[in-house]
Design goal:
The structure is a single chain. By secondary structure, the protein is mainly alpha-helical. Helix content is 94%, strand content 0%. It contains 2 helices and no strands. The protein has helices at residues 3-31, 35-92.
Length: 93
């Protein structure tokens, strides 16, 4: 088995343990009737999710803007190049 496969298996195990622990914590809080703590935890989790979504959209937007800028620069260079060629043809004629 390759080293990368072993690392993937360890990561999967850690994820499973994390979710198992989270589910056990929620169940324990429900059994002890600590609903207020669950409300606060869920509000914080939603805020965290919103932050992740906001930053991921910013990253996609930046990549899109960069691509548009590169295309624009390439189009400008091509139009300058074609103008220079047409000037050269006029001079030669």
């Amino acid at each position: 088995m390759r080293h990368q496969d072993k690392i993937k298996i360890k990561r999967r195990r850690r994820r499973k343990l994390f979710w198992l622990f989270a589910a056990a914590a929620v169940c324990a809080l429900l059994l002890e009737e600590q609903v207020a703590v669950l409300y606060v935890a869920s509000a914080l989790a939603i805020c965290g999710l919103m932050m992740v979504l906001a930053f991921s959209n910013l990253q996609a937007r930046d990549a899109e803007m960069q691509t548009a800028t590169i295309r624009e620069a390439a189009d400008n260079d091509m139009s300058r190049y074609s103008r220079n060629l047409s000037r050269g043809k006029r001079r030669a004629a």
